Amino acid sequence: MSTAVENLTLEEAAAELERLAKELARHDALYHGKDAPEISDADYDALKRRNEEIEARFPELVRTDSPSKKVGAAPSGIFQQIVHARPMLSLDNTFSDEDVRDFINSVYRFLGRLPDNSIAFTAEPKIDGLSMSLRYENGKLVSAATRGDGTTGENVTANIRTIKEIPDTLPPGVPPVVEVRGEVYMGKSDFLALNAQMEAEGRQTYVNPRNTAAGSLRQLDPTITASRKLKFFAYAWGEISEPNDLPKTQYDMVQTFKTWGFPVNPLMKRLSSVEAIIEHYNEIGLKRPDLDYDIDGVVYKVDQLDLQQRLGFRSRSPRWATAHKFPAEQAFTTVENIDIQVGRTGALTPVARLTPVTVGGVVVTNATLHNADYIEGIGNSGERIREPDHDIRIGDTVIVQRAGDVIPQVLDVVMEKRPSDAVRYEFPKICPVCGSHAVRERNEKTGKLDSVTRCTGGFVCRAQAVEHLKHFVSRNAFDIEGLGSKQIDFFFEADDPALSIKTAPDIFTLQARQEASLTKLENIDGFGKVSVRKLFDAINSRREIALHRFIYALGIRHAGETTAKLLARSYGSYAAFSEAMAAAAVPGSEAWNDLNTIDGIGEVVARAIVEFFKEERNMDVVSRLQREVTPLDAEAPVATSSPVAGKTVVFTGSLEKMTRDEAKAMAERLGAKVAGSVSKKTDLLVAGPGAGSKLEKARELGVETTDEDGWFTLIGG
User: Most buried among 177, 647, 711, 712, using CB within 10 Å?
Assistant: First the structure.
């Protein structure tokens, strides 16, 4: 349900993204490293989908270890590795008809066209299997590799040769080098037959066809793979030595694979209108139960290959393709209790404790209730998301959905089953951890109450202090190995000054305090000489740290990893950054305007950063931290040979030769910083027809200006 993500606050979103990153990394390790998946592929995709939805709404919170930046998982050490000649990327997901319209419109916008059905798309089932790249040289199969992390995969050539549907040789006339990519899967009927055999032999049965196919391919003994009756659909390609002699469209290229002897999906169609694409999606959905292979959606791709090339790629996915996923699964259960969790920013988050219920193959026991308004059935913008009397109460029977949540969400209440003695839930006004007042802040400009209730205890509140420490040592902040959640709790609770860690600087004085004390950490249960030495080594290895990691680790409200990188890149050094933030405390100052000019930094984020630096207690912690740690200056732009590398560029007016998205992507590839407004720090303004106030301000400030032709001349395009 779309209201779930819209209902998240920045703090809730950051916490959930952190949980999602850890949860998905854990499942990657279980599946790829140990062949012991705990959830189905569909459930895994649901977790990634939730992550992407949150990141789309809160781009400033995108983490450096975000699952959206990863493709698959690092290959295990079981097989030799193969580096893909061209990366094997993932697809972005869509979940509604409106999302599909947005995707198609985004293609037209990027290409600078009106949505007039002139661009064709292919639509084909999204096979729930294992991605595979088959490399042929001089017509012979020479290697087969899993997707792995998108760059490097596992060499499973011997196992792939056992799949009868995959040709060992290609017909005469194919290019000298051809990489055919597709999906390895197990048919439903073959899966059921295999499980029947396993059951008859008294052995453990398998969970689903997808995991069974993946496990079968990763067998060290190819004869086991051969016995599993795996199949293959070809749908894409990687490196091809003579692409000019091949078809110019996605559809025709796949049909060419068919002539080469590869199975291709018979439900693939070439369509132009949104209506036709959605109709085909619905048709495939109706056929889904009768297909002998699992699918979890429909994939749409721009058909013309030259348009695909022009649209290009994001960090992990192409702009010219998307996967339209089938709806999430739902179930009914009972709310047994409502607990309150307190985060590092003091946010009080209600969590429903549920009677265990299986949803999509996973047992669900908890569901997030987001905030007080959500319990009452009110969205983040004040809109009604459930009927007025459908507030969530202890004892209610509710509809639970696993739409990608690590903690699923409650969609609605089944009023017919509400107990007669059920009473409205009263949201606490006192922090359950420290006893401080819990309040909802009011926006001074709008007068609107914040949807989040916060503890006012600050560092007095154990939950906030502990969660801040856990954030500080997390992977994308200081990443201190050996300081996990359990260890942070231990050090925070310790009364002995030789062991206590209450704030971040205490981490870096721990070894000195230990050396001067009779209380030795190595003598405490759970530690030892080796683990203590490793802990101190891990701490000392972080005494120099990248600037963006340092900024992110400070735990500034609203300042996620993406924001921290923007700040590091914009200011270059911590000294320059802190000095600018102190100066930005003056409303309307040049420093304040410069901060707001950074593309991706809005007023809300800017105000939160400035407020952090105005707080004396924060500055005391940072000052003590700087005595122990050195933030390194930000690295210079990669494209140092570009004439615009390191420069700040602003685009304005109606660009005619490129869309705004293309212009921004081009400038960033060349190492430039793209700003949203003109200031004294702007190096170049590219003005198209109709340029107004930005062009006038650039002239007033003496900023260099040019038109599109001048831009292309400058960059050598």
Answer: 711
